[in-house]
Amino acid sequence: MKKILVANRGEIALRVMKTAKKMGISTVAVFSEADRNTPHVRFADEAVCIGKAPSSQSYLLGDKIIKAAKELNVDGIHPGYGFLSENADFAESVEKNDLIFIGPKSNAIRIMGSKLMAKETVKAYDIPMVPGIDEAITDVAKAQEIANEIGYPILIKASAGGGGKGMRIVEKEQDLESQMERAISEATSAFGDGSVFLEKYVTSPRHIEIQVMADTYGNVLHFFERECSIQRRHQKVVEEAPSSVLTPKLREEMGIAATKVAKACDYVGAGTVEFLLDADMNFYFLEMNTRLQVEHPVTEMITGIDLVELQIKVARGEELPIEQKDLNIHGHALELRVYAEDPLNDFLPSVGNLETYQLPVGEGIRVDNGFEEGMDVPIYYDPMISKLITYGKTREEAIELMLEAIDDYQIKGVQTTLPFGTYVFEHEAFRSGNFDTHFVKNYYSSERINEKNEGEAKIAAMIALHQYLEDKKIVKLPTN
Ligand code: MV4
Question: What gap in Å lies between CA 396 and CA 431, rounded to an integer?
Fold first, then answer.
């Protein structure tokens, strides 16, 4: 593989191209009219404009991207995350055009894109799943029967949904019929597929996911877990590796389960197997994400492995160069997603110009970033500006370094999730490790940040007053 096109933008496009460059592979960027003057375009050896700003007219145009790749004699396409990364038709089309898709085969993407097909596929592999059914259901009477067997609360899920879309909690039998009707009609209009199924609702779970990597020779490795419970509206904000609650035994069991999920669908490349962990430390397979994830850096920090490098190696037909026994966890890593959103105003997007933009630097600090001072944060795409990652020998060290790095990260012109990060990393529930997916709902409100700010302002005012009075004494001294 001599030349790779990265079908993405922002920090992930840069992240992928940096590894390609390190491996002596040349890079092609694609960009929309809104991204003409961005770091990912400047970093690439070649760059092609593929259309107007909206992603439906640029980053989602698979045919146009393939055409550009052919014209520039590209060997492989890396899709990053989002956009076309989990589009089975695109992966298939790339391969049909004699290009290498740096990711799994379209069949694996298709299977895991449907929750019901995923359950069906992994069924024979002895992987724990939440009590529930594994086929679509429309008959309300039958659903009531099943729900009574499982026990309330019940969760209705859309087969085609993902990242929490199309889910409904049902607390009691009387609500099942109306909630099912709504779930089916919602799923039909949102995904063009009204299939829904039922699961026991796990009330206070942690979200733990396992990174896997598979080659084309049937070898599958796991790279331990990431804990991603701190999220709002199904959008992760803080991730860490390892989790502070897994025992070595549970870690190994979940790792083995994850590799079985990958084997069940003949997986190739980097993937993530999502699990729920309940309050009694039982784990359940939820779904598999068939791409490189946003939060992959925390895994790279604790394993010392460049996951993009491995993706490229297995894509060009090499066998995985390491074995499971070569992989160990060293230290602890945290990631804060820096979004151009206002944590004091319900996390509404806060796009605008980055009037001041200075990154924190230092040992143990990594920033995966796609922006520069003076740039605008465009309204057209996901408002994530960067990912702030810290690494320490211990979790405490990583947390302290994170708090310092947040302080040193200078952003003016847009509101960001940096103050939210400070709130999380200072919070007793986070520091003790005693939290679940309800952290934001349970502990966060903008008033709390405001209270904290006000408290700090009062202290600052008192120090200033004290200093003023001290200064006056000094000034008076000579006259006494
Ligand atoms: C669940 C659940 C509780 N019980 N399934 C949300 C995203 C999607 N991947 C699956 N999700 C959930 N499935 C059962 N049977 C709770 C969630 C869930 C969640 C999962 C991971 C991270 C954050 C979450 C926030 C709310 C709900």
Answer: 8
Q: Does domain 206-443 have CATH number 1.10.940.10?
A: no
Residue 161 has pLDDT above 90, yes or no: no
Q: Is 291 a catalytic residue?
A: yes
Give the CATH superfamily of 131-200: ATP-grasp fold, A domain (3.30.1490.20)
**Which residues does ligand 1 sit against, CB inside 6 Å?**
130, 155, 163-164, 199-202, 205, 207, 231, 234, 274, 276, 286-287, 437
Residues 6+ apart with CB under 8 A from 206: 227, 229, 243, 245, 276, 277, 435, 436, 437
Residues pairing with 275 in the sheet: 208, 285
Q: Which amino acid is at 292?
A: L
CA of 164 to the centre of ligand 1 (A): 6
Indicate which atom in ligand 1 lies nearest the CA of residue 161: 8
pLDDT at 98 over 90: yes
Q: What is the DSSP letter of 477?
A: G
* Residue in 437, 440, 442 to alter for ligand 1 test, most ligand atoms within 8 A of Cβ: 437
pLDDT digits 0-9 by tens, 409-444: 999 999 999 999 999 999 999 999 999 999 999 999
What is the largest distance, in Å, between two alpha-carbon atoms of the chain?
94
pLDDT at 479: 55
Kindly provide the residue ranges of all beta strands, DSSP E only, lying in 195-252, ordered along the sequence: 196-200, 206-214, 220-232, 235-241
Could you state, in order of their start, the residue ranges of all structural domains in the chain?
A: 3-102, 131-200, 206-443
Select from 223, 374, 202 the least CA-distant residue to 303. 223
CATH, range 3-102 = 3.40.50.20
Q: For ligand 1, atom 16, which residue shows the shortest CA distance?
A: 202
H or E element that contains 64: helix 62-71
State what percent of residues in the chain have pLDDT above 90.
88
Of 9, 291, 337, 366, the active-site residue reads: 291
Amino acid at 301: M
pLDDT in tens, 52-80: 999 999 999 999 999 999 999 999 999 99
For ligand 1, atom 12, the nearest C-alpha belongs to 164
pTM (whole model) above 0.90: yes
Which atom of ligand 1 sits closest to the CA of residue 274?
A: 9
Task: Please name the residue whose Cα sits nearest to atom 14 of ligand 1.
Answer: 201
- Nearest residue by C-alpha to atom 9 in ligand 1: 163
Query: 7 CA distance to ligand 1 centroid (A)?
Result: 29
Residue-wise pLDDT tens digits, 358-406:
999 999 999 999 999 999 999 999 999 999 999 999 999 999 999 999 9
Sheet holding 100-101, edge to edge: 46-51, 26-32, 3-6, 76-78, 100-101
